[in-house]
Structure formats: C-alpha cells, structure tokens
Amino acid sequence: MNKVRGSAAEAVADIPDGASLAVGGFGLSGVPAALIDALYARGTTGLRVVSNNCGVDGRGLGVLLAAGRIARVTGSYVGENKEFARQYLSGELEVELTPQGTLAERLRAGGAGIPAFYTPAGVGTQVARGGLPWRYAPDGTVAVPSPPKDTREFGGRPYLLEHGITTDFALVRAWRGDRHGNLVFRRAAANFNPLAAMAAGVTIAEVEELVEPGELAPEDVHLPGIYVQRVVTLSAAQAADKPVERLTLAASSARGTVRS
C-alpha cells in the first residue's frame, strides 16, 4: 500500500513513446510540472495528451510541445500557446477541440466505466456535423477532419453522442496526499486533476505535502487512493513554484495600495 516513489524520474520511467496521457491542470494551476519535466528529461515522444489546455510557451505541457514530443492533443482551450498554434496550422500536431464541460464529462465517464453519453453541447454546430480540422496538411488543406456525431432526441430535444475517455497514464498534482494515494486538491487545481486521475490505467500524483495514512479525514479526500498507483513528494522549492498565467494589478484609489 506504500505508493510513494523515490523521484519523479522513477515514477515516469515506464511511460513509453506513443502513450496516451491525461494531464491535470487548469491554466497553470495544479499542473504536474515535476512529472512533466521528468518525462521531458527521459526523452519520451509521440505522446497523445488529454488536458484542458496545453500549458503556455515554456511552462507545463508547453515544455513537451516545444520539444516536438506531443503528437495529438484533446483539449478545450489553447489560446495561450503560440507554438501550439504554429504546430497545429503547419500540420505537425493533431488537435481535437472539445467543449470544456464535455471534456470534463468525457474524462469522468471514462473513469466511471461509462463508454458514451449524450449531451446538448454542440448541437446544430460543426461539432455535430463533422469536418472540423483535426490535422492540417502542409499545404493548408484539411488532412484529418472530425467525424460527424450521432444525434438523438430525448424529450423532444436533440443531443450529441460523446465517448468517454480513458488513457494509459495520468499525471496530476495535489496539495496533500498520503502513502495510500488519497489526494486533496486546492481551489482551481480541483477542476481537472481528479477527472484526469480517474480516467487512466496508471495514475501518478505529485503532492506538495505527504502525510501518513489516517491524517486525512475521509470527508476531506477528493480522490480515493484506489485511483492512484504512484505518489511523488515535491521538494519545498517545487511546491512553491506556482506561476501566475496572467498577473493583473489594480491600484486602489482609496488607499493608494496595489492588489493582485
């Protein structure tokens, strides 16, 4: 039951080229940066990534992307990464864009053993009709279009069929965790990390604080250890490394102070 590994490098050592990965994070919040860096150092390539976004230039999954290690991305938002846009438009990267709520439910469904479900999101759009460019050819034409989705009516309202997502591995980051793999997430880090962890065959979690079994109250646990196979403890410096994606400062007219 002791799932703790000695290092991030040890934890990701068996992730092969071409593996599918569910990766937690929301913007730069809750991104498993240490595990991503270890995978980069190992040289793993051809990865098929499922994540809300693909990091930013030089941070998070953007590190693997810039090195040409990612072959395909399923995500909902990619607007903060110029290299992502370049690779996609040049035909180097295959991209399946999915509405954010649909992506969350596809991961949850995969983790719950639900193969598919119907949702109203995307009805009447090209998401339903198909033909969205998953991959471009070098000449700018569409090399791989999205397929049309099955549509059915329930209660007189149309719905689209979406498939649950499962992956070979998941990389997630938690605020606290114990040696059994029970995890607690903080704030925005709880948006996609638990869902990514549920969807994978092997889930690897980096934790900011490792505690002993029994120290986490059962009602405080966001993800039970049954979903987690490996735990890596972050150093103090790694745990404190929490960049802000967009820092906005506003001056207070009343007191002349600055707040973020």
Automatic annotation (TrEMBL):
Pfam family, one: CoA_trans
NCBIfam families in UniProt: pcaI_scoA_fam
Name this polypeptide is given: CoA transferase subunit A
GO molecular function, one term: transferase activity
Lineage: superkingdom: Bacteria
PANTHER family documented for this protein: ACETATE COA-TRANSFERASE SUBUNIT ALPHA (PTHR13707:SF60), KETOACID-COENZYME A TRANSFERASE (PTHR13707)
Database matches in SMART domains: CoA_trans
The keyword Transferase is annotated on this UniProt entry: yes
Record Gene3D superfamilies: Glutaconate Coenzyme A-transferase
InterPro entries referenced in this protein's UniProt entry, alphabetically: 3-oxoacid_CoA-transf_A, CoA_trans_fam_I, CoA_transf_BS, NagB/RpiA_transferase-like
Keywords assigned: Transferase
Similarity annotation: Belongs to the 3-oxoacid CoA-transferase subunit A family.
